[in-house]
């Protein structure tokens, strides 16, 4: 090839060059996936959402050493009138032992006295006290990890607890690295005048490996146009990305840009950065090819600005940095003076402040570690933290991710898992965080400025209308509803409906063991409304006081035979292979202050629930109507 110089007509700002190049790469990038053993998946990135095969605990388990009893057998026991339980009225259990029918409560060993007649108790037991219900931590069928999630040590433990032994992950991007230059020699090569020991490629190789890729470093290539063309052309077929080091500047033997123009398309040649101006950003065979300058500092800066973020995009990998921030605690945390306590929290930025929502505090709640963004540490000798107070949060999630997260607090539905899975896939760098506190709890959180939106399904008894009357009554700030989905509510029962339950009236016959939702949940509001209309007292419902915080937890209780029936949505019944008696069709929407509609994560959220992919996934689950999903409803 005739020698000629590469003259820069202009250089492009780094941010503009990166955006222009990445916009081109996004159109052609192929995310490859592979299956690996969970025990070898540390640091890998999930290729798709992962759903639990089994619940944890697998059965109703005793949370204490003591005796399992029927709560109704203990009624009336007190210090002044102790009760004696016969041997056939209790079973000795240790922590973690199964609690089987007909027992539904555990009394601690410290609270019983053995006698020759049996055991003496001095207090009645509440139903389900000191019992970890099946699925308390993980419910079979629920999402454990979303797609594009970097797997941590705690994630591996939870995956195994949920019966997952193999997992689909993003395949590590394979990168070919070619050092070029006739003057380049290997570190152990023969040194002559003008020789330069090659080291950049080894730096690149290790930076690639550190970023979750696989670097393949090739021996140095001489300044030979045809040789460089042959090697780069072959590599662009075999590898996911190619880096050519040196030969990108304005010298007469700097062939890289000419080779890349002949083989493909040069998007950018020359960026406005010093040192490191002669960077080449190209596409060959629908693969990214980057030409980096030869000087070590220039090479490093070029790699950090372009190759590193491109690798993270291709590998769906995000580097996290441990740091701390101050956040407002969303609810009061009471702590013992005896211990230093680590409370798991979800963190989000809402408006101009960070908000931390505490998660389950039990030592057995492993999923709380997976869901958490960090710890709120309450020092020994502190009685806790009041709601709204600031506290220091130790993060183990990147602060930038937290700032780009849509914070959702309110009613539970399986669609929140679908949205959380789709968000980072369709909108890299954006996320969804959801906490389940019921519809009314969500509206209160929204009013206190702790969330961007609250999913709700609240029936107004006076008007028969869903959701809008509550928003009108509670908010002075302009607040709208993002239309979510229509869904079916009903009674979930065992396959075959052995007790022949066909209506709410049947739940009051004394034989049916019911499991309820927590106070403030829209499902609880609907159930209570129906009871009042039918003239049925909650006291007539056996198990009315037993509460679960999600539809899947209710479904798991019915599926495991610790309950006969529970109100919930059709998709949860389908997920647990239960029968379903339809009670009502309802509207599940998202209340959001109008000012938040301009946030990028909220816009992304709306686009997802409007998308055909979202609607298709809900159709597969069953029980949803997506007509108008994503539209804005104003009262």
TrEMBL record:
Domain MoaB/Mog residues, every copy: 176-313
GO cellular component term of the entry, any: cytosol
InterPro entries from the UniProt entry: MoaB/Mog-like_dom_sf, MoaB/Mog_dom, MoCF_biosynth_CS, MoeA-like, MoeA_C_domain_IV, MoeA_C_domain_IV_sf, MoeA_linker/N, MoeA_linker/N_sf
Keyword terms: Magnesium, Metal-binding, Molybdenum, Molybdenum cofactor biosynthesis, Transferase
Pfam families membership: MoCF_biosynth, MoeA_C, MoeA_N, PBP_like
Keyword match Metal-binding: yes
One GO molecular-function entry: molybdopterin molybdotransferase activity
Pathway annotation from the record: Cofactor biosynthesis; molybdopterin biosynthesis
PANTHER family (alphabetical): MOLYBDOPTERIN BIOSYNTHESIS PROTEIN, MOLYBDOPTERIN MOLYBDENUMTRANSFERASE
Name of this protein: Molybdopterin molybdenumtransferase
Organism: Candidatus Allocopromorpha excrementigallinarum
Organism classification: Bacteria, Bacillati, Bacillota, Clostridia, Eubacteriales
């Amino acid at each position: 090839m005739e020698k000629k110089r590469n003259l820069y007509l202009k250089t492009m700002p780094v941010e503009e060059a990166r955006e222009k190049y990445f916009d081109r790469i996004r159109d052609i990038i192929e995310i490859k996936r592979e299956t690996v053993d969970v025990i070898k998946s540390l640091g890998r990135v999930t290729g798709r959402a992962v759903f639990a095969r089994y619940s944890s605990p697998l059965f109703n388990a005793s949370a204490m050493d003591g005796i399992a009893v029927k709560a109704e057998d203990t009624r009336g026991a007190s210090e002044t009138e102790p009760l004696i339980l016969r041997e056939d009225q209790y079973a000795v259990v240790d922590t973690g032992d199964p609690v089987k029918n007909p027992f539904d409560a555990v009394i601690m060993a410290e609270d019983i006295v053995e006698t020759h007649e049996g055991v003496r108790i001095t207090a009645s037991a509440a139903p389900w006290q000191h019992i970890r219900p099946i699925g308390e931590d993980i419910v079979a069928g629920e999402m454990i990890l979303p797609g594009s999630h970097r797997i941590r040590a705690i994630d591996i433990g939870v995956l195994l607890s949920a019966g997952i032994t193999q997992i689909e992950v993003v395949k590590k991007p394979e990168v070919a690295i070619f050092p070029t230059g006739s003057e380049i020699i290997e570190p152990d090569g023969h040194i002559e005048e003008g020789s330069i020991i090659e080291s950049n490629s080894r730096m690149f190789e290790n930076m690639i490996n550190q970023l979750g890729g696989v670097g393949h470093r090739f021996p140095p290539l001489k300044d030979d146009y045809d040789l460089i063309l042959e090697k780069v052309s072959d590599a662009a077929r075999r590898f996911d990305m190619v880096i050519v080091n040196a030969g990108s500047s304005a010298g007469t033997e700097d062939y890289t840009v000419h080779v890349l123009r002949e083989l493909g398309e040069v998007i950018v040649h020359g960026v406005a950065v010093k040192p490191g101006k002669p960077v080449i950003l190209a596409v060959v065979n629908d693969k990214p090819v980057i030409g980096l300058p030869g000087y070590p500092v220039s090479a490093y800066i070029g790699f950090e600005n372009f190759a590193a973020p491109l690798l993270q995009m291709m590998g769906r990998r995000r580097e996290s940095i441990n740091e701390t921030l101050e956040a407002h605690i969303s609810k009061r945390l009471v702590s013992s003076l005896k211990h230093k306590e680590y409370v798991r929290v979800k963190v989000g930025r809402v408006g101009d402040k960070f908000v931390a929502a505490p998660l389950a505090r039990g030592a057995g709640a492993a999923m709380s570690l997976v869901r958490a963004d960090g710890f709120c540490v309450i020092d020994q000798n502190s009685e806790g933290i009041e709601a709204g107070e600031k506290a220091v949060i130790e993060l183990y999630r990147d602060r930038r991710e937290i700032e780009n997260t849509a914070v959702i607090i309110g009613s539970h539905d399986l669609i929140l898992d679908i949205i959380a899975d789709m968000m980072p896939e369709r909108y890299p760098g954006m996320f969804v965080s959801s906490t389940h506190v019921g519809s009314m709890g969500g509206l209160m959180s929204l009013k206190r400025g702790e969330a961007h939106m609250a999913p709700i399904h609240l029936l107004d008894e006076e008007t028969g209308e869903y959701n809008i009357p509550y928003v009108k009554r509670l908010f002075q700030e302009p607040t709208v509803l993002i239309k979510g989905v229509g869904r079916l509510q009903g009674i979930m029962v065992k396959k075959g409906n052995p007790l022949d339950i066909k209506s709410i009236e049947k739940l009051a016959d004394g034989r049916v063991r019911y499991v309820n939702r927590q106070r403030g949940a829209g499902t609880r509001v609907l159930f209570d409304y129906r009871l009042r209309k039918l003239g049925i007292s909650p006291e007539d419902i056996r198990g009315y006081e037993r509460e679960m915080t999600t539809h899947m937890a209710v479904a798991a209780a019915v599926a495991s035979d610790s309950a006969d029936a529970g109100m919930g949505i059709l998709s949860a019944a389908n997920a647990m292979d239960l029968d379903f008696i339809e009670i009502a069709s309802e509207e599940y929407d998202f209340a959001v202050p109008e000012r938040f509609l301009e946030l990028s994560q909220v816009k992304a959220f709306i686009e997802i629930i409007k998308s055909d992919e979202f609607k298709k996934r809900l159709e597969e689950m069953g029980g949803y109507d997506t007509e108008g999903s994503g539209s804005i409803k104003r009262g």
